[in-house]
Here is the input.
Amino acid sequence: MAQAQPQPITAQDMMQLDAEAAGARMQFAAVIVLDGAPTLATVRAVLAARLAAVPRLRQRLIRRPRGRPVWVPVPDVDLARQVDEVPCPEPGDRSALLAVAARIVPQRLSLARPPWRVTLVSGLAGGRSALVIVLHHVLADGLAGLAVLAALVDGPAPAPSAPDPARRGPPGLSRLRAAAAELLGNGLQTAPRCSINAGPVDVGGPHRTLAVAQADLAAVVTAARAAGGTVNDVVLTAVTGALGAALAERGEVLDRLVVSVPISARVRAGTGELGNRVGVLPVSVPLAGAPGDRLPVVVAVTRARKTAMPGASTVLWSPFVRLLAAVGAFGPFIEHQRLVNTFVTNVRGPSRPLTIGSLRVLELIPVAPISGNVGVAFSVLSYAGRLTITVVADATRCPDGPRVAQLLQGQLAALTEPG
Here is the structure.
Protein backbone atom coordinates (compact mmCIF):
# COMPACT_ATOMS: atom_id res chain seq x y z
CA MET A 1 0.00 0.00 0.00
CA ALA A 2 1.37 3.41 -0.99
CA GLN A 3 2.03 5.77 1.84
CA ALA A 4 -0.02 8.95 2.06
CA GLN A 5 1.79 12.04 0.84
CA PRO A 6 2.75 14.61 3.51
CA GLN A 7 0.05 17.27 3.71
CA PRO A 8 1.18 20.92 3.62
CA ILE A 9 -0.54 23.30 6.00
CA THR A 10 -2.81 25.97 4.53
CA ALA A 11 -2.02 29.67 4.16
CA GLN A 12 -4.35 30.44 7.05
CA ASP A 13 -2.66 27.81 9.22
CA MET A 14 0.67 29.39 8.29
CA MET A 15 -0.62 32.66 9.75
CA GLN A 16 -0.76 30.94 13.13
CA LEU A 17 2.92 29.97 12.91
CA ASP A 18 3.87 33.46 11.72
CA ALA A 19 2.02 34.99 14.65
CA GLU A 20 3.76 32.68 17.09
CA ALA A 21 7.16 33.42 15.56
CA ALA A 22 6.40 37.09 16.23
CA GLY A 23 5.82 36.40 19.92
CA ALA A 24 2.15 35.40 20.16
CA ARG A 25 1.15 32.13 21.84
CA MET A 26 -1.32 30.55 19.40
CA GLN A 27 -2.93 27.83 21.47
CA PHE A 28 -6.34 27.41 23.06
CA ALA A 29 -7.90 25.02 25.54
CA ALA A 30 -10.94 23.44 27.12
CA VAL A 31 -11.20 22.74 30.84
CA ILE A 32 -13.36 19.64 31.29
CA VAL A 33 -14.71 19.10 34.80
CA LEU A 34 -15.41 15.40 35.54
CA ASP A 35 -17.75 13.87 38.10
CA GLY A 36 -15.08 11.56 39.50
CA ALA A 37 -11.36 11.05 39.88
CA PRO A 38 -9.72 8.79 37.27
CA THR A 39 -6.09 7.82 37.59
CA LEU A 40 -3.51 9.13 35.16
CA ALA A 41 -3.16 5.61 33.74
CA THR A 42 -6.91 5.50 33.07
CA VAL A 43 -6.85 8.85 31.27
CA ARG A 44 -3.93 7.74 29.09
CA ALA A 45 -5.71 4.48 28.27
CA VAL A 46 -8.92 6.29 27.29
CA LEU A 47 -7.00 8.69 25.04
CA ALA A 48 -4.96 5.88 23.49
CA ALA A 49 -8.19 4.16 22.49
CA ARG A 50 -9.59 7.34 20.94
CA LEU A 51 -6.61 8.73 19.01
CA ALA A 52 -7.45 6.72 15.92
CA ALA A 53 -10.56 8.87 15.50
CA VAL A 54 -8.46 11.99 14.91
CA PRO A 55 -5.46 11.32 12.62
CA ARG A 56 -4.12 14.86 13.09
CA LEU A 57 -3.51 14.13 16.78
CA ARG A 58 -1.02 11.48 15.60
CA GLN A 59 0.93 13.86 13.35
CA ARG A 60 3.57 16.53 13.77
CA LEU A 61 4.91 19.33 11.62
CA ILE A 62 8.08 19.12 9.57
CA ARG A 63 9.58 22.30 8.14
CA ARG A 64 11.05 22.15 4.65
CA PRO A 65 13.74 24.27 2.96
CA ARG A 66 11.08 25.53 0.58
CA GLY A 67 7.35 25.75 0.87
CA ARG A 68 5.07 25.44 3.87
CA PRO A 69 5.58 22.91 6.66
CA VAL A 70 3.89 19.55 6.18
CA TRP A 71 2.05 17.18 8.50
CA VAL A 72 3.71 13.77 8.86
CA PRO A 73 2.54 10.75 10.88
CA VAL A 74 4.06 9.91 14.27
CA PRO A 75 4.13 6.09 14.43
CA ASP A 76 3.92 5.87 18.23
CA VAL A 77 2.59 8.88 20.12
CA ASP A 78 4.27 9.00 23.52
CA LEU A 79 1.34 9.55 25.87
CA ALA A 80 3.73 9.77 28.82
CA ARG A 81 4.90 13.07 27.33
CA GLN A 82 1.54 14.23 25.98
CA VAL A 83 -0.56 13.52 29.08
CA ASP A 84 0.47 14.50 32.60
CA GLU A 85 -1.05 15.23 36.02
CA VAL A 86 -0.95 18.11 38.51
CA PRO A 87 -2.76 18.51 41.84
CA CYS A 88 -5.30 21.26 42.42
CA PRO A 89 -4.48 23.41 45.45
CA GLU A 90 -6.95 23.88 48.30
CA PRO A 91 -9.84 24.43 48.44
CA GLY A 92 -10.16 22.65 45.08
CA ASP A 93 -13.02 24.84 43.85
CA ARG A 94 -13.55 26.39 40.42
CA SER A 95 -11.35 29.39 41.21
CA ALA A 96 -8.47 27.12 42.23
CA LEU A 97 -8.96 25.01 39.08
CA LEU A 98 -8.97 28.10 36.85
CA ALA A 99 -5.77 29.31 38.48
CA VAL A 100 -4.13 25.99 37.58
CA ALA A 101 -5.47 26.20 34.02
CA ALA A 102 -4.25 29.80 33.69
CA ARG A 103 -0.74 28.54 34.42
CA ILE A 104 -0.96 25.45 32.18
CA VAL A 105 -2.59 26.78 29.02
CA PRO A 106 0.07 29.36 28.00
CA GLN A 107 2.96 26.88 28.37
CA ARG A 108 4.41 26.52 24.89
CA LEU A 109 3.53 23.37 22.95
CA SER A 110 6.43 21.69 21.21
CA LEU A 111 5.98 21.49 17.44
CA ALA A 112 8.51 18.64 17.43
CA ARG A 113 5.67 16.50 18.76
CA PRO A 114 1.93 16.39 17.99
CA PRO A 115 0.87 19.93 19.01
CA TRP A 116 -1.50 19.13 21.87
CA ARG A 117 -1.33 18.37 25.57
CA VAL A 118 -3.72 16.96 28.18
CA THR A 119 -3.28 17.59 31.90
CA LEU A 120 -5.26 15.74 34.56
CA VAL A 121 -5.98 18.10 37.46
CA SER A 122 -6.63 15.94 40.50
CA GLY A 123 -7.91 16.74 43.97
CA LEU A 124 -10.91 18.93 43.18
CA ALA A 125 -13.55 19.33 45.88
CA GLY A 126 -16.30 16.73 46.02
CA GLY A 127 -14.12 13.94 44.63
CA ARG A 128 -14.02 15.56 41.19
CA SER A 129 -11.20 16.12 38.72
CA ALA A 130 -10.64 17.97 35.48
CA LEU A 131 -8.85 17.61 32.17
CA VAL A 132 -7.16 20.63 30.60
CA ILE A 133 -6.89 19.92 26.87
CA VAL A 134 -4.60 22.36 25.03
CA LEU A 135 -4.44 22.50 21.21
CA HIS A 136 -2.20 24.56 18.98
CA HIS A 137 -4.14 26.80 16.58
CA VAL A 138 -2.19 25.37 13.65
CA LEU A 139 -3.92 22.06 14.41
CA ALA A 140 -7.48 23.38 14.53
CA ASP A 141 -9.66 26.44 14.92
CA GLY A 142 -12.37 26.61 17.58
CA LEU A 143 -15.05 24.70 15.69
CA ALA A 144 -12.64 22.00 14.56
CA GLY A 145 -11.26 21.87 18.09
CA LEU A 146 -14.75 21.06 19.29
CA ALA A 147 -14.86 18.18 16.81
CA VAL A 148 -11.59 16.91 18.27
CA LEU A 149 -13.11 17.07 21.74
CA ALA A 150 -16.24 15.20 20.61
CA ALA A 151 -14.07 12.47 19.12
CA LEU A 152 -12.36 11.93 22.48
CA VAL A 153 -15.54 11.32 24.49
CA ASP A 154 -17.12 7.96 25.19
CA GLY A 155 -19.34 6.03 22.81
CA PRO A 156 -18.51 3.82 19.82
CA ALA A 157 -15.08 4.71 18.54
CA PRO A 158 -15.81 6.85 15.44
CA ALA A 159 -14.12 6.22 12.14
CA PRO A 160 -11.88 9.02 10.90
CA SER A 161 -14.01 11.68 9.25
CA ALA A 162 -13.87 12.32 5.55
CA PRO A 163 -12.55 15.74 4.55
CA ASP A 164 -15.09 18.54 4.43
CA PRO A 165 -16.32 19.28 0.89
CA ALA A 166 -14.37 22.08 -0.70
CA ARG A 167 -16.13 25.44 -0.70
CA ARG A 168 -15.38 27.43 -3.80
CA GLY A 169 -15.71 31.17 -3.66
CA PRO A 170 -14.93 33.86 -6.22
CA PRO A 171 -11.51 33.73 -7.89
CA GLY A 172 -8.66 34.75 -5.64
CA LEU A 173 -8.03 38.18 -7.18
CA SER A 174 -11.68 39.22 -7.07
CA ARG A 175 -11.98 38.01 -3.47
CA LEU A 176 -8.89 40.00 -2.54
CA ARG A 177 -10.30 43.12 -4.20
CA ALA A 178 -13.63 42.63 -2.44
CA ALA A 179 -11.86 42.10 0.85
CA ALA A 180 -9.77 45.21 0.44
CA ALA A 181 -12.82 47.30 -0.44
CA GLU A 182 -14.75 45.98 2.56
CA LEU A 183 -11.93 46.33 5.07
CA LEU A 184 -10.33 49.54 3.90
CA GLY A 185 -13.64 51.18 3.07
CA ASN A 186 -16.11 50.94 5.93
CA GLY A 187 -14.98 47.64 7.43
CA LEU A 188 -12.39 48.88 9.89
CA GLN A 189 -12.70 51.74 12.34
CA THR A 190 -10.01 52.83 14.73
CA ALA A 191 -10.77 51.38 18.14
CA PRO A 192 -10.99 53.85 21.04
CA ARG A 193 -7.92 54.08 23.21
CA CYS A 194 -8.11 52.43 26.63
CA SER A 195 -5.82 50.82 29.20
CA ILE A 196 -6.49 47.22 28.11
CA ASN A 197 -4.70 48.00 24.83
CA ALA A 198 -1.96 50.21 26.26
CA GLY A 199 0.87 47.73 25.67
CA PRO A 200 1.81 44.13 24.87
CA VAL A 201 0.48 41.30 27.02
CA ASP A 202 2.61 38.66 28.71
CA VAL A 203 1.78 35.77 26.39
CA GLY A 204 3.49 33.08 28.42
CA GLY A 205 2.17 34.03 31.87
CA PRO A 206 2.48 34.18 34.82
CA HIS A 207 0.00 37.07 34.71
CA ARG A 208 -2.85 35.19 33.01
CA THR A 209 -6.16 35.10 34.89
CA LEU A 210 -9.35 33.19 34.12
CA ALA A 211 -12.84 33.88 35.44
CA VAL A 212 -16.24 32.56 34.37
CA ALA A 213 -19.81 33.82 33.93
CA GLN A 214 -22.68 31.48 33.01
CA ALA A 215 -26.30 31.66 31.88
CA ASP A 216 -29.13 29.32 30.99
CA LEU A 217 -28.86 28.77 27.23
CA ALA A 218 -32.64 28.58 26.66
CA ALA A 219 -33.06 31.96 28.37
CA VAL A 220 -30.34 33.46 26.17
CA VAL A 221 -32.02 32.08 23.04
CA THR A 222 -35.36 33.51 24.17
CA ALA A 223 -33.84 36.96 24.74
CA ALA A 224 -32.10 36.85 21.36
CA ARG A 225 -35.26 35.89 19.47
CA ALA A 226 -37.32 38.55 21.23
CA ALA A 227 -34.87 41.15 19.88
CA GLY A 228 -34.76 39.57 16.41
CA GLY A 229 -31.16 38.56 16.88
CA THR A 230 -28.87 35.67 17.74
CA VAL A 231 -27.08 34.24 20.75
CA ASN A 232 -23.96 36.04 19.49
CA ASP A 233 -25.84 39.35 19.74
CA VAL A 234 -26.71 38.68 23.38
CA VAL A 235 -23.09 37.74 24.07
CA LEU A 236 -21.75 40.90 22.40
CA THR A 237 -24.20 43.05 24.34
CA ALA A 238 -23.25 41.47 27.67
CA VAL A 239 -19.50 41.37 27.04
CA THR A 240 -19.19 44.98 25.89
CA GLY A 241 -21.49 46.15 28.67
CA ALA A 242 -19.35 44.41 31.28
CA LEU A 243 -16.02 45.57 29.85
CA GLY A 244 -17.31 49.12 29.41
CA ALA A 245 -18.52 49.18 33.02
CA ALA A 246 -15.19 47.83 34.32
CA LEU A 247 -13.30 50.51 32.41
CA ALA A 248 -15.70 53.18 33.72
CA GLU A 249 -14.91 52.06 37.28
CA ARG A 250 -11.28 52.90 36.48
CA GLY A 251 -12.29 56.32 35.22
CA GLU A 252 -12.18 55.38 31.52
CA VAL A 253 -15.60 56.25 30.10
CA LEU A 254 -15.99 55.14 26.46
CA ASP A 255 -18.90 55.46 24.06
CA ARG A 256 -18.09 52.26 22.15
CA LEU A 257 -15.80 49.24 21.95
CA VAL A 258 -14.58 47.47 18.82
CA VAL A 259 -14.84 43.69 19.12
CA SER A 260 -13.35 41.09 16.77
CA VAL A 261 -15.73 38.16 16.28
CA PRO A 262 -15.00 35.04 14.20
CA ILE A 263 -16.92 34.07 11.08
CA SER A 264 -16.59 30.37 10.25
CA ALA A 265 -16.35 29.13 6.67
CA ARG A 266 -16.98 25.52 7.69
CA VAL A 267 -19.87 23.48 6.34
CA ARG A 268 -19.82 21.41 9.54
CA ALA A 269 -17.62 20.45 12.43
CA GLY A 270 -15.57 17.40 11.60
CA THR A 271 -12.18 15.84 12.23
CA GLY A 272 -11.49 14.98 8.61
CA GLU A 273 -10.31 18.48 7.74
CA LEU A 274 -9.03 20.41 10.71
CA GLY A 275 -6.82 23.47 10.46
CA ASN A 276 -8.23 27.00 10.33
CA ARG A 277 -11.20 28.12 8.27
CA VAL A 278 -12.28 31.23 10.11
CA GLY A 279 -12.43 34.89 9.15
CA VAL A 280 -12.81 37.83 11.50
CA LEU A 281 -15.42 40.55 11.65
CA PRO A 282 -14.64 43.74 13.61
CA VAL A 283 -17.85 45.15 15.15
CA SER A 284 -18.09 48.61 16.72
CA VAL A 285 -20.56 48.24 19.60
CA PRO A 286 -22.16 51.31 21.26
CA LEU A 287 -22.09 51.31 25.07
CA ALA A 288 -24.83 53.80 25.97
CA GLY A 289 -28.00 52.49 27.64
CA ALA A 290 -29.20 49.61 29.78
CA PRO A 291 -28.56 46.02 28.60
CA GLY A 292 -32.14 45.49 27.39
CA ASP A 293 -32.07 48.75 25.44
CA ARG A 294 -28.66 48.03 23.92
CA LEU A 295 -29.54 44.54 22.61
CA PRO A 296 -31.71 45.73 19.66
CA VAL A 297 -28.99 48.23 18.77
CA VAL A 298 -26.37 45.49 18.74
CA VAL A 299 -28.66 43.31 16.61
CA ALA A 300 -28.90 46.11 14.04
CA VAL A 301 -25.15 46.73 14.08
CA THR A 302 -24.18 43.09 13.57
CA ARG A 303 -26.82 42.62 10.87
CA ALA A 304 -25.37 45.55 8.95
CA ARG A 305 -21.82 44.25 9.33
CA LYS A 306 -22.77 40.77 8.12
CA THR A 307 -23.74 42.19 4.75
CA ALA A 308 -20.00 42.26 4.05
CA MET A 309 -18.52 39.14 2.48
CA PRO A 310 -17.96 36.54 5.24
CA GLY A 311 -14.30 35.71 5.65
CA ALA A 312 -13.20 38.62 3.49
CA SER A 313 -10.81 39.82 6.13
CA THR A 314 -9.07 36.46 6.11
CA VAL A 315 -8.44 36.74 2.38
CA LEU A 316 -6.81 40.12 2.88
CA TRP A 317 -5.00 39.48 6.14
CA SER A 318 -3.35 36.20 5.12
CA PRO A 319 -0.91 37.73 2.58
CA PHE A 320 -0.66 40.89 4.69
CA VAL A 321 0.37 38.91 7.79
CA ARG A 322 2.84 36.83 5.76
CA LEU A 323 4.43 40.03 4.42
CA LEU A 324 4.70 41.58 7.88
CA ALA A 325 6.18 38.35 9.26
CA ALA A 326 8.70 38.17 6.41
CA VAL A 327 10.11 41.62 7.25
CA GLY A 328 9.92 41.11 11.02
CA ALA A 329 7.13 43.65 11.48
CA PHE A 330 4.23 41.45 12.60
CA GLY A 331 5.16 41.54 16.29
CA PRO A 332 5.29 45.36 16.46
CA PHE A 333 2.06 45.53 14.44
CA ILE A 334 -0.03 43.39 16.81
CA GLU A 335 1.54 45.04 19.87
CA HIS A 336 0.49 48.51 18.70
CA GLN A 337 -2.64 47.84 16.61
CA ARG A 338 -5.67 50.09 17.02
CA LEU A 339 -8.17 48.00 15.08
CA VAL A 340 -9.91 46.15 17.94
CA ASN A 341 -10.19 46.42 21.73
CA THR A 342 -11.01 42.79 22.46
CA PHE A 343 -11.81 39.39 20.93
CA VAL A 344 -14.90 37.22 21.37
CA THR A 345 -14.96 33.60 20.22
CA ASN A 346 -18.27 31.73 20.34
CA VAL A 347 -18.68 28.03 19.58
CA ARG A 348 -21.87 26.01 19.90
CA GLY A 349 -21.00 22.93 21.93
CA PRO A 350 -22.78 19.61 22.48
CA SER A 351 -26.39 19.89 23.57
CA ARG A 352 -26.32 16.51 25.33
CA PRO A 353 -24.23 15.65 28.39
CA LEU A 354 -20.96 13.91 27.56
CA THR A 355 -18.87 11.31 29.34
CA ILE A 356 -15.15 10.55 29.26
CA GLY A 357 -14.02 7.19 30.52
CA SER A 358 -17.54 6.59 31.93
CA LEU A 359 -17.37 9.79 34.01
CA ARG A 360 -19.90 12.54 33.39
CA VAL A 361 -18.62 15.84 32.02
CA LEU A 362 -20.08 18.43 34.38
CA GLU A 363 -18.66 21.56 32.77
CA LEU A 364 -16.84 22.63 29.60
CA ILE A 365 -14.90 25.85 30.14
CA PRO A 366 -13.29 27.35 27.00
CA VAL A 367 -9.99 29.26 27.11
CA ALA A 368 -9.00 31.46 24.17
CA PRO A 369 -5.52 32.89 23.59
CA ILE A 370 -4.65 36.55 24.08
CA SER A 371 -1.78 38.25 22.30
CA GLY A 372 -0.50 41.53 20.97
CA ASN A 373 -1.93 44.44 22.90
CA VAL A 374 -5.35 42.87 23.53
CA GLY A 375 -5.33 42.52 27.30
CA VAL A 376 -8.63 40.70 27.70
CA ALA A 377 -10.63 38.30 25.54
CA PHE A 378 -13.86 36.37 25.94
CA SER A 379 -14.25 32.70 25.07
CA VAL A 380 -17.83 31.41 24.77
CA LEU A 381 -19.10 27.82 24.64
CA SER A 382 -22.52 26.26 25.12
CA TYR A 383 -22.82 22.82 26.67
CA ALA A 384 -25.80 20.79 27.83
CA GLY A 385 -28.12 23.78 28.22
CA ARG A 386 -25.58 26.19 29.77
CA LEU A 387 -23.68 29.06 28.19
CA THR A 388 -20.21 29.61 29.64
CA ILE A 389 -18.18 32.76 29.00
CA THR A 390 -14.56 32.74 30.14
CA VAL A 391 -12.85 36.07 30.75
CA VAL A 392 -9.20 35.54 29.73
CA ALA A 393 -7.13 38.45 30.97
CA ASP A 394 -3.54 39.57 31.32
CA ALA A 395 -3.24 41.11 34.77
CA THR A 396 -0.74 43.71 33.56
CA ARG A 397 -3.33 45.17 31.16
CA CYS A 398 -6.58 44.05 32.81
CA PRO A 399 -5.97 43.53 36.53
CA ASP A 400 -9.67 43.17 37.32
CA GLY A 401 -10.57 40.08 35.25
CA PRO A 402 -12.70 38.57 38.05
CA ARG A 403 -14.54 41.90 38.38
CA VAL A 404 -15.23 41.87 34.63
CA ALA A 405 -16.71 38.37 35.03
CA GLN A 406 -18.86 39.58 37.93
CA LEU A 407 -20.17 42.48 35.86
CA LEU A 408 -20.71 40.09 32.95
CA GLN A 409 -22.82 37.85 35.16
CA GLY A 410 -24.97 40.88 35.97
CA GLN A 411 -25.31 41.81 32.30
CA LEU A 412 -26.44 38.29 31.41
CA ALA A 413 -28.99 38.33 34.24
CA ALA A 414 -30.36 41.67 33.08
CA LEU A 415 -30.78 40.33 29.54
CA THR A 416 -32.25 36.92 30.37
CA GLU A 417 -34.16 37.15 33.64
CA PRO A 418 -37.71 38.61 33.62
CA GLY A 419 -38.31 41.83 35.51
In short: The first strand starts at residue 7 and ends at 8. The radius of gyration is 21 Å.
